[in-house]
Amino acid sequence: MQASDIHRFRLVERAGPGQRVQWRASAGIDSAAIVASGFGRAVPPAALADPQLESRGAGAWRINARDDSFEFEARAVDAVEMRPSLLSGLHQPFALTARERFAARCLLALLRLPGGARLLRNWHAKRSA
Q1: How crowded is residue 48: how many other Cβ atoms within 10 Å of its Cβ?
Q2: Judgement on whether residues 80 and 18 belong to the same structural domain of the protein
Q3: Cβ contact 65:50 at 8 Å
Q4: How much is the pTM?
Q5: Nearest C-alpha neighbor of 65 from the set 45, 79, 40, 37
Q6: Which residue among 84, 104, 120, 128 is least crowded, i.e. fewest CB within 10 A of its CB?
Q7: Alpha-carbon span 86 to 76, nearest angstrom
Q8: Could you give the number of structural domains in the chain?
Q9: What is the pLDDT along the chain (129 residues), one digit of tens a residue?
Q10: Residue 124 phi, psi dihedral angles, 5° rounding
Q11: 75, 122: one domain
């Protein structure tokens, strides 16, 4: 995780199911999170500035932040970067046009009738070819 991209992480989930703790940051359309499951005994800080995650071995972890450092125990810790903007262009070739959406809606409505499934399969085969 690059500290120059994201500066502030805030605590959004504290010891819910599976003793999960999550810090989340947002930078425009992209966001990042630090997720710890099986979180043990320590009280998580409410905010972290420029966190750097470090494994200490045997389930011990350390987060070095700009202000201070925080040590804790957890079964697993993940630093996740979500970048939906990277994938937005990949979906364009598969998007249905308005005409195709209307045809699909009509075919799905006809699905209940005898032969409706065959009509839908034939339409999809023709569109995919």
Answers
A1: 23
A2: yes
A3: yes
A4: 0.57
A5: 45
A6: 128
A7: 27
A8: 2
A9: 444 444 788 888 786 656 888 888 866 656 888 888 888 777 888 888 888 889 988 889 998 988 888 888 998 899 888 877 777 788 777 888 899 899 888 888 888 888 888 888 888 898 887
A10: -65, -40
A11: no
